[in-house]
Design a protein that fits this description.
The protein is mainly beta. It is built from one helix and twelve strands. A hairpin with an 8-residue loop joins strand 5 and strand 6 (67-69).
Length: 156
């Protein structure tokens, strides 16, 4: 028996819940094997300053050849409500999430056709600004698979 959701949209953990106060942190790289690549970046407490979120493409599962790329995103309301902001396009400089937007989810989507030839790995870079004293974050990568499968392709 299988779970229908996981045959089409395959979730993958890419960043365990962590407090990234002092350093920019990349999620695990996700090899793009499907029609779309989506990341759910869930922010807990953000204290102090803002956080810059960018998406990077690379030719391997490392940041050595990484380059920032444009993406589309939506920001949820806080967990006490269930609304989403408008779909917005971010350039390669990314999007800023402020301390007032803690307890929200940033839904990030990248169309694989927008990637450079040979760059089929994606990661999200979360960069706290100087005066942050807490940035709790976790992320899940989701791919819409090309072909329905009980055991989807590896993302590594």
């Amino acid at each position: 028996m299988s779970i229908r959701y996981a045959q089409h949209l395959v979730p993958r953990p890419v960043l365990s819940p962590v407090d990234i106060v002092s350093a920019a942190t990349n999620t695990t790289h996700m090899k793009v094997t499907g029609h779309h690549a989506t990341f759910l970046v869930y922010f807990g407490t953000i204290t102090g300053d803002s956080v810059v979120v960018t998406v990077e493409e690379s030719s391997a599962a490392s940041t050595t050849s990484a380059e920032a790329v444009p993406f589309r995103y939506r920001l949820s309301s806080a967990h006490t409500a269930s609304t989403w902001g408008a779909v917005t396009t971010a350039d390669s400089a990314g999007v800023i999430v402020t301390a007032a937007q803690d307890d929200m989810i940033l839904l990030v989507e990248v169309d694989p056709s927008d990637l450079s030839d040979g760059d089929n790995y994606l990661s999200v870079l979360v960069s706290p600004e100087a005066s942050c004293s807490a940035v709790e974050v976790a992320a899940i990568g989701i791919q819409e698979e090309r072909y329905k499968a009980t055991n989807p392709k590896s993302s590594t």
